[in-house]
């Protein structure tokens, strides 16, 4: 593992940078150094067998630092190979370590971006690209490999809503929480040729988070309710979590034009031999939440800004949410929210 370096504008060949949103606490640069560990986790999507990411680096910027003053934690091996893993293997609170105990400048970090190996610089270059040349997905039913494209708008990084702190001579651990249901998109013009990966992630200080977990009864999963997209308990089932109590559940594209809330996080429901489903939404900051279940999550769409049809541009979907419930999350505590049969 290389030591972090202050660089002014990386010029890696064939990479893409994804902006992140994070949370933590207080002050700017504090002088000295501290230790930082970072891991990655995921909320799954339907229809994909694998989402194979190749990560080159995590870039961080301190409060008050210049636009080009990034602290770079390079995760490539000694031969320059990117760190590769299947993101779908790390769900329901399981994490993949990006790096451990790297020494970085102490202080409060307010910008972050993840550097991926994704060679296509334009959507057109993604068509016909060798998927194995960079990050890619594996389609569940066909086994087809499809390359990932990261739009250029994700390259600049973003100011963090709640920055995280690395103390002087201390330790901090953060988790990058992907929500692939909100991040992955395949525009109509790129069917079977390319997936777009947009920045729909959170970064949380691990010690300051809790989780919501529970079970879902079989009649809610298998279409018995008449509200599901199909009768297969293995598909389309998810739990959506919203910040605040008594929120009206909405799809991921809900905004001020519709009277529903957009989710803060989602989790796929896993169905197994016990005859019921289970889920975990991990790494949630403490606070009040509304939790709801849907068996139509496979009908969730992402907006296509280039589509001619307004419905495809907005992609606001009616997902028939069931049993919305209020919950309170505390740090290092699991809050149980079950969805029983009616």
UniProtKB/TrEMBL annotation:
Pfam families given in the database record: DUF4382
Signal peptide residues on this chain, from the entry's feature table: 1-21
Domain DUF4382 positions: 33-199
This protein's UniProt keywords: Lipoprotein, Signal
Name of protein: Lipoprotein
Organism: Thioalkalivibrio nitratireducens (strain DSM 14787 / UNIQEM 213 / ALEN2)
């Amino acid at each position: 593992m290389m030591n972090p370096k202050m660089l002014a504008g990386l010029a890696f060949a064939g990479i893409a940078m994804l902006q992140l949103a994070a949370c933590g606490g207080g002050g700017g640069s504090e002088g000295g150094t501290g230790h930082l560990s970072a891991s990655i986790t995921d909320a799954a999507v339907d229809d994909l067998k694998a989402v194979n990411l190749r990560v080159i680096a995590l870039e961080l910027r301190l409060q008050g630092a210049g636009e080009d003053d990034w602290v770079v934690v390079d995760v490539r091996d000694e031969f320059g190979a990117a760190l590769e893993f299947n993101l779908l293997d790390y769900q329901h609170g399981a994490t993949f370590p990006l790096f451990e105990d790297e020494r970085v400048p102490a202080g409060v970090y307010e910008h972050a971006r993840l550097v991926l190996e994704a060679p296509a610089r334009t959507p057109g270059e993604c068509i016909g690209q060798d998927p194995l040349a960079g990050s890619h997905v594996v389609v569940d039913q066909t086994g087809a490999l499809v390359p990932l494209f990261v739009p250029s708008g994700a390259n600049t990084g973003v100011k963090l809503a709640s920055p995280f702190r690395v103390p002087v001579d201390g330790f901090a651990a953060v988790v990058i929480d992907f929500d692939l249901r909100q991040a992955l998109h395949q525009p109509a013009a790129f069917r079977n040729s390319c997936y777009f990966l947009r920045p729909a992630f959170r970064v949380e200080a691990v010690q300051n988070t809790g989780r919501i977990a529970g079970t879902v009864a079989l009649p809610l999963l298998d279409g018995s309710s008449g509200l599901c997209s199909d009768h297969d308990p293995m598909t389309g089932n998810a739990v959506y979590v919203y910040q605040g109590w008594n929120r009206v559940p909405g799809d991921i594209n809900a905004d001020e034009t519709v009277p529903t809330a957009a989710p803060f996080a989602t989790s796929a429901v896993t169905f197994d031999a016990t005859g019921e489903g289970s889920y975990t939404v991990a790494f949630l900051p403490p606070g009040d939440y509304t939790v709801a279940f849907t068996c139509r999550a496979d009908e969730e769409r992402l907006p296509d800004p280039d589509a001619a049809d307004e419905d495809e541009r907005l992609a606001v979907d009616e997902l028939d949410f069931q049993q919305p419930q209020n919950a309170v999350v505390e740090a290092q505590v699991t809050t149980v929210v079950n969805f029983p049969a009616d």
